[in-house]
Amino acid sequence: MGNRYWLPLLLFSMGVLPLRAQVPPFPELEAKQGLVVLIADAGNGRLLGGVHTEEAFQSRYFPGSLFKIAIAVAWMQRGGATPQRQFTCVGHDSTNQTLARCWLAKGHGSVKFVSAFAASCNLYFRHIAAGISHVEMIQAAKQLGMIGPSRFPGEPISPPAIPQIDDQNLLGESFTVSPAQMLRFGLTLATRGRLATTPFQLSGARYRLLYRGLQECVRTGTAKGAWRKDFTISGKTGTVYPPGTRQRTVGWFVGFAPATHPRYAIVVLQPDATGSQAATTAGDILGRLM
Q1: For a surface tag, which of 37, 73, 82, 132 has the fewest beta carbons within 10 Å of its beta carbon?
Q2: What pLDDT digit, counting tens, does each position of 270-290 carry?
Q3: 202: helix, coil or strand?
Q4: What residue spans define the domains of the chain?
Q5: Cα atoms in the 13 Å half-sphere on the side-chain side of 287
Q6: DSSP labels for 121-158?
Q7: What are the distances in angstroms from CA 28 to CA 31, 33, 52, 109, 285?
Q8: 17 beta partners
Q9: Cβ-based burial of 20 (10 A; exposed 0-12, middle 13-18, buried ≥19)
Q10: CATH code of the domain made up of 3-289
Q11: Segment 80-90, tens digit of pLDDT
């Protein structure tokens, strides 16, 4: 990131400068309290603007099903990921004498990785996580930018929250993340690791399944509200409860567009919503940008 961007980014992070020169305003979204949208240039990582950008570091929620990407990356780094790995989700599972439920009560039926990823099947990811150590999952989350600083100027300096992952807490409810961290996460995915906080290789045959899943999630899965006929979008949804309450949910969408040769990375944090609704918001915004 060039030096000429540091001062405006610092002012942005302090809430002094909205950084809207590169993206159109979204007045209808500004009226939605608590909504945070951040948009970055997927070529150089430059922050382009968004909605309520002053909340980039302050808003913190569980990542929820976005953590499934860390599970997938850890699985793929082991070298054992195959498109044929199949699991039958009936809505509940008691492997290891611990009852777990899928978000879809009736279950997703017989699924393989891409379809399970697109549908965000909790039990499929619990199934593959059984063969991955918690250390490996945490390492993947760090590489992706879900744990640790986002490295955007003006970010408060604090020690990273390292989750204590156990069988009941595999799906992203043991630590919180900010929209800025999730934007770094989106840039990491969009650039195959090039714009990660510590660059690493996220390309090649090993991760092909992940990128198929990200695209299928928007084409037919939980993020299909973001789908556009004129260009492709890749991404993942998450639906979480705010820490300390089981009342209204909050929706996440993290993604990038176009799916090949990305121009933009985007994160949407939408209160009183699901991840599917956050994906719809992201699709509307990307449609205007493209």
Answers
A1: 82
A2: 999 999 999 999 999 999 998
A3: coil
A4: 3-289
A5: 12
A6: -HHHHHHHHTTS-HHHHHHHHHHHTSSS----TTPPP-
A7: 6, 11, 12, 40, 11
A8: none
A9: middle
A10: 3.40.710.10
A11: 788 888 888 88
